[in-house]
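Many introductory courses stop at the sequence. We go one step further.
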Amino acid sequence: MVSERVGRVRTMLFASILLAISAIGCGLCFSAADLIVWRIVGGIGVGFASVIAPAYIAEVSPAAHRGRLGTMQQMAIVLGIFVAFLVSALLVFVMGSADATGLFGLAAWRWMYLSLLVPAVLYGVLSLRLPESPRYLVERGRYVEAATVLTRDMGMNAGEETEKKIEEIRATVHVERRQKFSDLLGRFGFHPLVWVGILLSVFQQFVGINVIFYYSTTLWKSVGFAESDSFTISLITSVTNVVATIVAVLLIDVLGRKLLLTIGSAIMTLSLGMMAVAFAQSETINGAVSLPGSWGIIALVSANLFVVGFGATWGPAVWVLLGEIFPNSIRAMALGVAAAAQWIANFIVSTTFPALADAGLALAYGIYAVAALLSLLFVIFMVKETKGRTLEDMKL
């Protein structure tokens, strides 16, 4: 893991550089081939950022507030989705269409990509102002710097309290790298705890949340809304997601991670099941899918209920758990494995949805409903509560 070699903050800076390069490359691309290359560069940057954020937040947060602070990553994600929709809408509104030529002779869609340069640069600049993780510093034998971070940035009292904390961290992270790797592995390829992280990531994607965002315009056109209305609904869905995440911030340290995930799985199973039933009533008119009578409204309400259920539970809680459940000795590596599984699951869901949609949206949402039900059983029987526990309490 890069973060174990160069530190958490430098990893964030590296991610911001990749994201900035991707934004410029995509905005100024010459062909579909190099656009794909720059998108891959951006994907690598997102991968770095998505792994390091939950690990860093967990490592610098007090146990009592770790869940609330951990949900801020999801808040940033949903706010980013909302702002991206808003910027794209404004560019299309001002320039007339996505293909219209604007400033410096560049099309609107190119400015959509170039606008990503702003958050990429902000990410890098702000990361330079962050203190390094004390757990990384202890692992590298930089005890004075770790003590400074613990007292100056994490509010601990200098002296005995800080020394005790450093000793607790040292006892859990000072192992040989070869031992770390052996801890990561288990009888079935990975340690059972790592499999819990992998399955949390996979279920988070297999319920189909990204289908709502990636294919939202297509979805709502099939419900009967015009393309312009569909874009507005997508913005409303993004705002709903932001509000739901605020709910998660307020509840995660009160209810705990496991109960929140259980409630979320139940809501998602119900809402996705209703969407499957609604689309089972669909009709094809002039080659377009349409929902008769009140079924369009039912599908709309169910989709937004799904977004609320996901945004208030599985969206943020999974990232919080991934930053918490692994012991210090393997946290970075195990989180990397879990995040990789999440992106693979995301790719599978997003690439299979068009084929599933052609076969019938009722089938697609029925599959996601089954995944939500399985996630409920998984949480009940496999996930342990981490509320209020220190990271040093986490054991294999």
